[in-house]
Write a structure and sequence with these properties.
The chain is mainly β. The protein contains 1 helix and 7 strands.
């Protein structure tokens, strides 16, 4: 028998999956929000924000390469926005991108281009 905590966590995850938007855009979103699969030819990327660190894990299940780049907008006015170096994700390949701010992160998102 599962514990009530595990059952509650499973229900919350299921509810979040049902209420997530069907299509996502490349617009910035709040910390910790991932990006759903995009149009054909784009890698599927998921962003994570933990404190002052942002990471993006991208997997390209398409036949064409995709060029991805992680962008981070810092919360403090004196903390500059940061962009990772662009990375090409080949077909059936995975890439992890990382970037950080000195303190908190306001937004983190991934942009796509032709590989």
């Amino acid at each position: 028998m599962r514990s009530p905590l595990l059952r509650t966590a499973a229900l919350l995850l299921a509810a979040a999956a049902l209420t997530a938007p069907a299509a996502a855009t490349a617009a910035p979103r709040g910390p910790g929000h991932g990006r759903a699969p995009g149009p054909a030819g784009e890698a599927e990327c998921h962003t994570r924000v933990q404190g002052s660190h942002a990471t993006a894990d991208c997997f390209n299940g398409n036949a064409t390469p995709d060029r991805v780049q992680l962008h981070v907008q810092c919360a403090r006015w004196w903390d500059p926005a940061m962009d990772s170096a662009p990375a090409v994700v080949g077909p059936a390949r995975h890439v992890a991108l990382a970037q950080r701010c000195w303190l908190e992160i306001r937004n983190a998102w991934v942009t796509h281009g032709h590989g």
